[in-house]
Each structure stands twice: as structure tokens, then as C-alpha cells.
């Protein structure tokens, strides 16, 4: 069975148990959580958000719990006391989308051609009307194992997710075409094998 430990009240008159305290505490936490959710309004019905490790769309905010429709189309119900205590990331409220792609160029490029490639990527960002003017950059980020890694950092100026995907698609195709026309190749995983004869002249 379940062991229930008695607890003395401050006035010493009566004993209560932990089970009873839990039964009282949980509804109170949910009530406080509901008030917090309704007052602070971190999310609204229809918002796409991440609550803890749950990602989905808010379907209902009730007096006791909040329901989230996940990307797998399941419904997760979270008690409001728990909901209000979790980290809440609201994707619907963002006003722009981050464009932070790393483009790998081949090591066969000489320095001048590499500079040209970086310039073409920066130019594609600058000439796109949907990209915010600041911050906006394209830089040689690091020397990867199989590529020269060019990092882009900019913001797509739209709050609509579907539109951001279209803009991202068009921008990446534009970058690809500019590099292709300049004869600048993209890197892909390769290995170079060096063979050397040993001191006996064999091998």
C-alpha cells in the first residue's frame, strides 16, 4: 500500500496527510497557472509554439489545461500549472526569419576566385528585396575538412512561415546560379589518397 505520513499543523490541533495536501496543491497550481496564461498571454489559440519539448499549434486554453496539436497530429494536454512553469517559445510572434546557411565551396579555388565567390553571395543577399539591410553578411567562416565554409547571416523580412520558405528557396537558387555562372564549384565530401614507395623501393 501507499505510506501516508501525518503532518502537524501550526496550531497543533489537527493532523493532515501528504495525499490530502497534494490533492489541494495541484488544483491550486492549475488555477494559478490558468490565471498566469490568461493574464500574461504568452500564447493564444492558433499560435505555433514550443512548450518545453512539445512543438505544435495551440488548439485550446481551458480552465485546467492547454491542448497542443503536434506536428505528428497528436494532441498533448498540459495542466496549466505545469504549462506556465515551462519555457515557452512562441514562433508565431516573430516578425522575421533567420537566414543562416553555410555554403561549402571547393578547395580547388584560388584566393581571387574565393573572394569573388564570397562577393557574389553577399551581392545576392544585398539585391534581394526581402532581406533586411542590417545585419547582413557573407564571410569565410572556417576551413572545413572538405570545403571552404562561407557563412551567411541575414533576416528574411516576413512574419509568414510559408512565404519565408519561398523567399529562402528563391535566394538559395539565386546564389547557386551566380556561383555556377562564375565557374565556382560547390564542395562535396572527398578523400585524397597519397601512395609513396617505402625505403626498399617496394609498395
List the helices and strands and how they pair.
Layout: E1 6-8, E2 15-17, H1 18-40, E3 48-51, E4 54-61, E5 65-70, E6 75-79, H2 80-83, E7 88-90, E8 97-99, E9 102-105, H3 111-126, E10 137-143, E11 148-156, H4 161-181
Antiparallel strand pairs: 1-2, 3-4, 3-7, 4-5, 5-6, 8-11, 9-11, 10-11
Q: What can you see in these coordinates?
A:
The chain is built from 4 helices and 11 strands. Helix 3 packs antiparallel against helix 4 (about 160-180). The radius of gyration is 29 Å and the shape is elongated. The protein has helices at about 20-40, 80-85, 110-125, 160-180; strands spanning about 5-10, 15, 50, 55-60, 65-70, 75-80, 90, 95-100, 100-105, 135-145, 150-155. Helices cover about 30% and strands about 25% of the residues. The strands form 3 sheets. Strands 6-5-4-3-7 form a 5-stranded antiparallel β-sheet. It is α+β, with helices and mostly antiparallel strands. The model has no long low-confidence stretch (mean pLDDT about 85).
In a few lines, what is going on in this structure?
With 203 residues, the protein is α+β, with helices and mostly antiparallel strands. 32% of the residues lie in helices and 27% in strands.
